[in-house]
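[job 0417] fold request received: Outer membrane protein beta-barrel domain-containing protein
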Amino acid sequence: MKNLILYSTIILIAFSAYGQRFSIGSNLGAPVSDAHDFYSFIIGIDANYWFVSDKFSAGIATGFNFFLSNELKGNNSGFYLENASFVPIAFASRFDLSDKFILGADVGYAIGVGNDGGFYYRPIFGYNISDSVQLTLSYRGISTDGLSVDAVTVGVNYSFSNRKD
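[job 0417] inference complete; emitting structure tokens
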């Protein structure tokens, strides 16, 4: 436990020498794998807090992902949709391949909102339009008990930097 605290402190001190950045974004996409059988569309928002170095960024990612059901269900009170919602909490990392392209991944847990949660992973590819605007293409995977809720999404992120250059 002491080693974990020591390593965490060293990492935080190392990253504090570099800038920090906050980013928010929105995305939409199509469910794939098992999720394609139950859901027709995904819409979401993302929020990230980054510790930034010259070519690498690491931080915390969260957001909200809403999977829209393909069909109406019925009961005595009328019809309703069996939608699924998740709030991911993940460690995020990004590597700058060049000034324009990034490659990264988010890994963590997706908390189910009214449904089961599970292991969350998100490989991501990005294109920087400017210093603060980025287009993304990602694969979002949530592994729950016996079901994989996955989607391919496209999105746009906007970054706010508190680094004073």
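[job 0417] notes: The chain has a mean pLDDT of 85. The first helix runs from residue 2 to 16.
[job 0417] exit 0
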